[in-house]
Amino acid sequence: MTIREQLDAAAEKHIIILDGAMGSVIQTLNLDEKVYHGNLFLDYSVPLQGCNDLLCLTRPGVIGAIHDTYLEAGADIIETCSFKSTSIKLAEFGLSHLSYDISAAAARIARKSADKFSTSEKPRFVAGSIGPTSKSASLGEIGWDELEISYYDNARGLLDGGADIFLIETISDTLNAKAALRAINRLLDERHTDVPIILSAAVSENGRLQSGQTLEAFFASIQRLPNHKMPWAVGLNCFSNAANLLPHLELLSEIAPCLISAYPNAGLPNQFGRYEETPETMADNIERYFKEGLVNIIGGCCGSTPAHIAAIAEKAYRITPRKIPSLPRSTVYSGLDTFNIEKNIVYLDKNEDGNIVNIKADDEQTMISLVNEALSNRYSAKSPFFINSREINVLQAGLKLLQGHGFAGPIDLKNGEAGFMQKARLIQSYGAAVVVTLMDECGKDDDLSKEEIAKRAYRLLQEIGYFADNIVFDLSTAIEDSICTWIRDNCPGALIAL
After folding, report:
1. 485: Cβ contacts below 8 Å, ≥ 6 apart
2. Which residues pair with 408 in a beta bridge?
3. Structure pTM?
4. Measuring CA to CA, which of 21, 246, 321, 497 is 20 to 30 A from 383?
């Protein structure tokens, strides 16, 4: 069985137990500066205490022992000690160049522990932790390219070290998460391999991410991965204790047709920075998740320890995991908020519905300026955007700024399939829907020709993994209604722009 098949089989049988906090356990060890430096950084002048991920190089035995205690507590999945191993976070310690090495070491340590505890009845898995960078792309604090490069090295190290899963966690900005997803998918395409992905957001009390998106808009933004794949699981972590996370988890469980994960904090830190919620209290609060059938994967975040995980695992024993709902089909796009497409009809050029922002430009700088201006307006930022250009570099410049699920194009077959596919793959890699105009090499404009073009374009896009509702046929110049009817009948799920 593949790793994905093993994970799916486990998820069908029982609630999967994720481990707890790594940093909280490290804190109890009272490690001094000398331990963090180890023998590798004896002459390094920068203080390294608190750079927990570095311990994977300087004190691997310490990290391995912590993994072991979580596995003994009942964890099915352990997270690598790589939460801050992107080059961007490591730059705070002058260690950017060690991102790959630390990530790979973190995965090797976790792999060794997982293999030691695995049995045929209870296999153990390694989740490669990819944490936030503390810089938000949506707030203009960092650019997409720097993020993607940083996430790529982090993910490459985790994969080479033996991670079974990629866990993009504590997401506060969906644009950052999309950069991580693009880096991971690029890596997986290069390696011709499949690794399940978990995305876990941190929402505030009002149900929004720090970047301003609602939880529903976040899910709309990340649910369309290439090649017809949903994330293996989507969830929530950090934020607060289990009781306060409950209403947001209830919402996510209602809208997500995939596995749901949750790993809340062990309460909130006191004046000394310590989390005071006991294992029993935390497990009692989480028990509500089980009774309501909300989760498939459960663990702990800040403040949790092996004792917390053991108490949670005991509550989860023999509990039926959440059943993935068979939800009615709906087409959802998003900016900061969500926008539902009704009857597969969307207005991109006329803006008749007032809910899609059409941004048209022929050069990169103009596109960047217009998108940033629209994003700075709290009313337009709520809506999905249409990145409107025939230039591939301009399309990419606009897509790098969108945390929401929007539209991009137009593309056509006027110059053949090569250019059509190049633009289509680019748009797909950023998670947007592609807008297709019905032109081909022959230049004919009758309805019969349009039908053939639509059929050809739909087939090509489906072959590279486009979801049907991420395909939009632009019929704003169509004279007859017959082409609309034909597309509805022969390109199921596709949208029509009028």
Report:
1. none
2. 387, 434
3. 0.95
4. 246
